[in-house]
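Weekend entry, working from home. Most of the wet-lab plans are on hold until the incubator is repaired, so I used the time to fold the two sequences that have been sitting in the queue since the last round of cloning. Logging both here for the record. First:
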Amino acid sequence: MLTEENKALVREVFEELFSKGNLALADQAYAPDYVGHDPANPEPLRGPEGVKQDISRYRRAFPDLRFTVEDLVAEGDKVVARVTVRGTHQGELMGIAPTGKRAEVTGISIVRFAGGKIAEEWGNWDTLGLLQQIGAVPAQDSPGARTAATYEK
């Protein structure tokens, strides 16, 4: 039954903390020594405060940010979530000025539990797709985009 409770907490984190900005949930859901691994972040996130800072950064950039949990799979102390994220780029993100463009990306998050709290997480999100959709880097089919054929010449 513990796996069902873990799945419910992961869903609540995406729906309440990430989508609605209920930052108080981070203190309840994440262990004090939580470590979050994401290739888009230069350093791992640490503790509930790290989670709050990270989600606040994205919610400032995308005030209408919405996470939709597509799938949850649990085994032992881990829950895997497949998620779709949508929002409109209305604030600065990673030094990129607001573009007003809508974006939709997917991601996978593997969450490890210890003592009923989220202790560690490995996330992999379509950061390149996000940057292409907000116009920060050229999309593959846009003029000036480099393809494998470009490099073969």
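Second, folded right after the first finished:
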Amino acid sequence: MPVKADIRAQYQLRASIIKGLAHPSRLLIVDELARGERCVCELTALVGADISTVSKHLSVLRKAGIVQDEKRGLQVFYRLRVPCVLRFVDCIEAVIKEGERAGEE
């Protein structure tokens, strides 16, 4: 029995959110935003890339619904829109640790 269109759409949406996280720089940004909001300039220094590259990463995260931004004067500040995304990151860490333990056996 084929998957219904609405269920397929839900899986597509889930995949787009996971794709939004699927880059080391974006994971680093999410980890930093877990500590609180940051301006683009702070994130640029953290990632070690030019502002254009960091802005593109932030745009991907924003389109995925993971972060939100707020312009204050000339600066743009970002924060996690849904802090529960950190549970997903914690789950990834658990998979890594479990894989390391399995490798020790």
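Plan for Monday: verify the second prediction. The beta strands are 38-39, 67-72, 75-80.
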